[in-house]
Specification:
This protein has 426 residues and is an alpha+beta fold. The protein is built from 13 helices and eleven strands. Helix 12 packs across helix 13. The protein binds manganese (II) ion.
Length: 426
């Protein structure tokens, strides 16, 4: 899937009927389950995480598939309205110091069966869909056991008291954006208490482009404090501690440009914050969350186009999503490999035959000057990524490094080359 930049079983088989049958049998096999495939996500992540401070970033994305009223393909509802598909929850390991994607950690791929009618507060965590945040964090503790420190990073959905009580451990931290306000010991809430703190510092931060936001430089002020969260009164969960100690960081944009939504982030973390530098560090770690959004984009519109799959049943679509998630993580590593000097082997993403072809293309593409030479050691991922980026139209005189779209185009071109080359060898 990585080398072909595609998840379409028919196209992956390159017109070879027995190969296509083998893919289908694999997806249909009852012993091949989405859970087993998810377990396989992390084989290489374990050792890559050793000794590092790892940001374990998790998030959920709905993968929509086309259905009709007569044929839902066995898929439950996702998102709003009459949309059907599967829900992918994934956790990526990212090096806290240099932002390198170390690989997938865990998660789940599910499709909803039936509607939930008991109200949210009346169900215990084990019954709730939100339990995925806690169970994936537990997977992280096991997969990332060799890491020096683990910081689990969640968006707002991952902010709930049970998670704060279940997950943190001596070298396991939690960093989450505030969702509902929490009561704090002083008889206040997080929001009101942080607002009364003095501004500790100011900085200009570049905001990335979003669907409803143009990129801009925002003038932000930062506040921080340590606080004691109080156990919610309405919980039916048993055994929760009375209080939990956290640090709170608030970012505000006091004077946003006209027509722009002002920035207002409140972050909660179990990391201790004593200095202004430490508070900004927390903000920078939280900003790394964009990597998982890139990952979902790679899987969908900008990359593998998983939502175009024509597979007929929910069970097989779940397995396909589980396989494609691993492919998307490797594409992300490829994009990064080109930017840095990543010495991991090219076999991470390519077969032995494909690497032979990459070596040939590499010879042809290099120019006479040093600058036009592939600067990376042979057979590394960075070396392969240089060739793929060139195929995607990137030029070494361009100031900007190649992005996911260039790689997507490069991989598509590579696939055509590879088919022709394999055919010639027949
Ligand atoms: Mn989310």
């Amino acid at each position: 899937m990585v080398a072909c930049a595609d998840v379409c079983v028919r196209r992956l088989a390159q017109g070879c009927w027995p190969t296509q049958m083998r893919f289908w049998r694999f997806l249909a096999n009852e012993r091949v389950t989405a859970d087993k495939l998810v377990e396989g996500w992390s084989d290489r992540t374990r050792s890559a995480a050793a000794g590092r401070h790892v940001l374990a970033i998790q998030d959920t994305s709905d993968i929509k598939f086309a259905t009709t009223a007569d044929n839902r393909r066995g898929l439950g509802k996702v998102g709003k309205g009459n949309v059907h598909g599967v829900r992918l929850h994934a956790m990526l390991a990212v090096d806290a110091d240099d932002g390198a994607v170390l690989g997938l950690v865990g998660g789940q791929v599910v499709t909803r069966q039936g509607d939930v009618d008991t109200s949210h507060a009346k169900r215990t965590l084990a019954d709730k869909e939100s339990s995925r945040w806690v169970s994936t964090a537990e997977q992280a503790k096991e997969v990332l056991a060799q890491a020096a420190t683990i910081t689990i990073v969640n968006d707002r959905e991952g902010d709930f008291y049970t998670h704060w009580s279940a997950t943190p451990a001596p070298n396991v931290h939690l960093l989450t954006r505030l969702m509902n306000d929490h009561a704090v010991a002083e008889g206040e809430t997080v929001r009101s208490a942080i607002a009364r703190k003095p501004v500790a510092g100011k900085a200009v931060i570049e905001l990335r482009k979003r669907i409803n936001r143009r990129p801009r430089a925002a003038h932000l002020s930062i506040r921080f404090a340590s606080m004691t969260l109080q156990r919610p009164r309405n919980t039916i969960e048993k055994g929760l501690p009375d209080t939990i100690q956290v640090s709170v960081v608030e970012l505000r944009e006091p004077r946003p440009p006209q027509d722009a939504e002002p920035v207002h982030w409140i972050l909660l973390t179990t990391h201790a914050i004593e200095t202004l530098d430490q508070a900004w560090q927390i903000v920078r770690w939280y900003q790394q969350r964009w990597i998982i959004e890139q990952f979902f984009r790679t899987l969908k519109l900008q990359g593998l186009r998983i939502e175009d799959s024509q597979l007929a049943s929910a069970d097989r679509l779940c397995k396909l999503v589980a396989i494609a998630a691993k492919a998307a993580a490797i594409v992300m590593q490829l994009v990064q490999a080109r930017a840095g000097s990543d010495a991991r082997p090219a076999t991470l993403a390519f077969t032995a035959d494909q690497i032979k072809l990459i070596a040939l293309l590499n010879q042809r593409m290099q120019g006479k000057t040093t600058r036009q030479k592939n600067p990376h050691p042979e057979n590394t991922l960075a070396w392969a990524a240089w060739v793929i980026a060139k195929l995607g139209g990137w030029h070494e005189y361009q100031a900007k490094p190649p992005g996911p779209v260039t790689f997507h185009n490069g991989l598509a071109t590579f696939r055509t080359f590879f088919e022709g080359w394999a055919f010639k060898n027949v």
